[in-house]
Amino acid sequence: SVVYLNGQFMQAAEAKISPMDRGFLFGDGIYEVIPSYGGRCVGFAAHIQRLQTGLAALDIQCAMTVQDWQQLVQQLIQSNGEGNLGIYLHVSRGTDTKRAHAYPKAIAATIFAYAFEISAEPLADTETAPCYKVITAEDLRWQRCHIKSTALLGNVMHHQQAAALGLNECILFDEHGFLTEGSSTNVFIVKDTVVITPPLSHKILPGITRQLLLSILRQHSKLTVEERPVSKHELLIADEVWLTSSSKEVAAVVEVDGLRIGNQRPGPVWQLAQSLFSQYKYEY
Ligand code: PMP
């Protein structure tokens, strides 16, 4: 496949980065994954905005403007066939001459991007939709989960807790027993047609799918939507539980810690939410 590295497009096998890159040594970088179907991106502006907020939080200087990113992404999509693609963008602080913790002065950021194949656009079909089975665990990641850092070991380890059991995701709770998010997803619950998700804070990633879904439900449905703390008990007795992410969109959870949710099938509110998401996602 064709990838982008530091200003040039090249074959993936030709892309080389120094082991002294701070992305490699420290996970010192920010990334994004933008879904694209038939050449159209979902939430492009919001993804680039989050990338720029993350770079500013880490004081990483990157000269790319929104237009530069747009051009880069369009070119990557075109050279990779315009199908169902995830566009991975990665900016590390850059390559230093030595390994030292302090931010070095005036090194150029390393910019890498590539496209990978993803599943076709999710459908709001209760018969064919994937049904996720998940476990819960105490959130043992760091306290800056709002930053989309390439340092993902905390997330990777939680994901592996689920994967080792043959399950899809690990849903996390903070030290007070309140829901944060999944290892690579945001979490929603539904009770009596009220849709509830934890509020934004340093404990969760501000997911773009979460943001789009909240806007779409508020604008295009009569459902009550709440951003507020969610306890584990509330999650376990919910009518529906959903995971959201760029590639999954809205995904129904049917089992948590071996206990069934609802009637163990994607529910009616899920069906409405995914169908509205499918209808309006390109408008944001
Ligand atoms: N939380 C975490 C920890 C994630 O890694 C992701 C996926 N990037 C999400 C939530 C979902 O975010 P988005 O909807 O922007 O893909």
Order of helices and strands: EEHEEHHEEEHEEEEHEHEEEH
What kind of sheet is the major sheet?
9 strands, mixed
Ends apart, CA distance between termini: 29 Å
Please state the overall shape, judged from the principal axes of the Cα atoms. Answer: globular
Percentage of residues in helical conformation: 25-40%
Second rung of CATH, namely the architecture of the largest domain? Alpha-Beta Barrel
Oligomer: single chain
SS strand fraction = 25-35%
Radius of gyration: 19 Å
pLDDT average, as an integer? 97
Structural description of this entry:
It is built from seven helices and 15 strands. It has about 280 residues and is of the alpha+beta class. It folds into two domains: about 1-115, Aminotransferase class 4, branched-chain amino acid transferase, N-terminal domain (D-amino Acid Aminotransferase, Chain A, domain 1, 2-Layer Sandwich); about 130-284, Alpha-Beta Barrel (D-amino Acid Aminotransferase, Chain A, domain 2). Strands 7, 8, 9, 10, 11, 12, 13, 14 and 15 form a nine-stranded mixed β-sheet that branches. A six-stranded antiparallel β-sheet has the order 2-1-6-5-3-4. Helix 4 links the parallel strand 7 and strand 8. Helix 5 (about 210-220) crosses helix 7 (about 270-280). The chain is globular and about 55 Å long. The mean pLDDT is about 95. 4'-deoxy-4'-aminopyridoxal-5'-phosphate binds near residues 205, 208, 210 and 245. 4'-deoxy-4'-aminopyridoxal-5'-phosphate binds near residues 181, 186 and 208. This is Aminodeoxychorismate lyase. InterPro entries: Aminotrans_IV (IPR001544), Aminotrans_IV_CS (IPR018300), Aminotransferase-like (IPR036038), BCAT-like_C (IPR043132), BCAT-like_N (IPR043131), Class-IV_PLP-Dep_Aminotrnsfr (IPR050571). One of its GO terms (molecular function) is 4-amino-4-deoxychorismate lyase activity. It holds the Pfam family Aminotran_4.
